[in-house]
UniProtKB/TrEMBL annotation:
Provenance organism: marine metagenome
A GO MF label: ATP binding
Protein name: Pyruvate phosphate dikinase AMP/ATP-binding domain-containing protein
Length: 481
């Protein structure tokens, strides 16, 4: 039986298990200032062993997570002396619940993976010999008959707040992104690996700047991924399983190579880099000042205004994009608002496509929410203030008409303005803004025949009449056929 307590002896290499498959290689770096006496051994994971061997090798090396206490043994060792192993399991894990996992020789190879092919047994009482024996046997029975296959025992984590898998490249294509798949709701550790329950995904480009990652927990996972990459041979794509518990501790549960890399297009990183550069250039050009549009910059979003994410989807087909542009976002969007007294925004499409995905030009949208008679300087101040608020509170991207822009005068107008935009306009500019918006609000609530609401209702009646007529013609044609 192999009980692992690894240390850092200053030697060239250190086998970490009886099979000797996972090897730590020690190298030395000599700082120029202090000379040879300051040399410190640096460990690298020279090769991967089984699931258990790799975790044991990494246990003393990582800093951004901890490898739980572990114990593993081969099928041959179990067959020789199961009673002693059962006793050691209970003693080693303080008779607390444990997990029995497979650690087969052919499970995590460099050419193929058998992830999910073998049995795991969760939440087993390590103080119950019969339960331990049954769980070990279930794991062994799922193997292919090799006596060197191993059973890995780890504590059953409790108070799990998040668990999941980090891929250091997109697994299908090899695209240069960290892919974080996680579950932060169920409190379980196997929902992602088992394909059940909640699955949330975050993609971060491999060349990301640390200061651009706003989420502390995403940053924590990326730090772990980069640390593990640094301990492996350069360029090794990794599949990393993790869990985080209520005490804030991040636990490393598995590390293996991604085995489908032979199918990747080796030029995809260059293609992605070129596409990102072109997207950056396009956005910079589009964000520049436009003579007929207020606002010093823009923001692109998929859910503001005429929300393309809900209507045509985030990855629509070319026909859907073309129809949506023709029917709504090329010009109709601003023409309809102009008839209601809002600021016209001619020759300005509302929707752009970037990387095949539709985005709303939020600057254009915000211009169309302003009363038409406002001076340019007032429009400029309001649009910039609205953009700033959306940037700092992106959670409002699907409700900009309510939480960002003030498009009518309601009973909370003054209170909302002071809470959100105090000091943006001077006294006279604010009074003019409120007056023009109040006039617009009253006009659009008017039931006068020439007001916008009755006109819109009559057009709806006309459209319903046309639709009814077409349906009748279709029905007659069907009967004749």
């Amino acid at each position: 039986m192999t009980v692992h307590q690894l240390h850092h002896p200053p030697q060239k290499s250190l086998p970490t298990a009886t099979s000797g498959a996972a090897i730590l290689e020690f190298t030395y770096e000599e700082p120029e200032e202090n000379g040879p006496e300051s040399r410190e051994p640096l460990c690298k994971l020279k090769s991967f062993g089984t699931k258990a061997e790799t975790l044991a090798a990494l246990q003393p090396l990582i800093h951004f997570a901890t490898v739980p206490n572990l114990l593993f043994f081969s099928v041959a060792e179990w067959n020789t002396n199961p009673a002693d192993i059962i006793l050691e399991i209970g003693h080693r894990f303080n008779y607390e619940p444990v997990v029995f996992r497979s650690s087969a020789l052919n499970e995590d190879g460099d050419k193929q993976s058998q992830a999910g092919a073998f049995t795991s047994c969760l939440d087993i009482d390590s103080g119950d010999p019969q339960a331990v024996r049954k769980a070990v046997q279930e794991v062994i029975n799922s193997f292919d008959g090799c006596s060197e296959d191993q059973v890995l025992v780890m504590p059953m984590l409790t108070g799990v707040t998040m668990s999941g898998v980090i891929m250091t490249f997109v697994i299908d294509s090899g695209a240069p992104y960290y892919v974080l798949n996680y579950d932060d709701e169920s409190g379980k550790t196997d929902t992602i690996t088992g394909g059940t329950g909640v699955n949330k995904t975050v993609l971060v480009h491999r060349d990301f700047a640390s200061g651009h990652v706003d989420s502390p927990r995403v940053s924590e996972l990326l730090n772990l991924a980069r640390e593990l990459e640094g301990l492996c041979e350069r360029g090794t794509p990794l599949d990393i399983e993790f869990a985080k518990t209520q005490d804030g501790q991040l636990h490393l549960l598995q590390v293996r190579r991604i085995t489908v890399q032979e199918n990747w297009n080796r030029r995809i990183s260059r293609y992605v880099g070129e596409a990102l550069f072109q997207a950056e250039q396009f956005f910079e050009n589009h964000s520049r000042r436009k003579p007929h549009v207020a606002g010093t910059r823009t923001i692109l979003g998929q859910m503001p205004d005429w929300n393309p994410a809900e209507i045509i989807g985030t990855r629509p087909k070319p026909l859907a994009i073309s129809l949506y542009r023709h029917l709504i976002t090329d010009s109709i969007w601003q023409e309809a608002r102009a008839t209601m007294g809002y600021q016209p925004v001619p020759h300005t499409p509302l929707m752009l496509t970037l990387g095949g995905q539709p985005y709303i030009d939020v600057r254009a949208s915000f211009n169309s929410f302003l009363p038409a008679k406002l001076p340019q300087i007032t429009r400029e101040k309001l649009v910039n203030a609205w953009l700033n608020r959306l940037e700092t509170q992106p959670e409002f991207h699907d409700k900009v008409e309510f939480e960002i822009a003030q498009t009518i005068v309601d009973f909370n107008f003054a209170e909302d303005y002071l809470a959100r935009y105090r000091g943006v306009l001077n006294h006279d500019e604010y009074r003019e803004f409120r007056f023009e918006l109040a006039q617009l609000t009253a006009a659009n609530l008017s039931l006068d025949d020439k007001a916008s609401l009755p006109i819109a209702l009559r057009k709806i009646d006309q459209l319903e009449g046309i639709q009814s007529s077409q349906n009748k013609k279709s029905t007659i044609g069907t009967h004749l056929a």
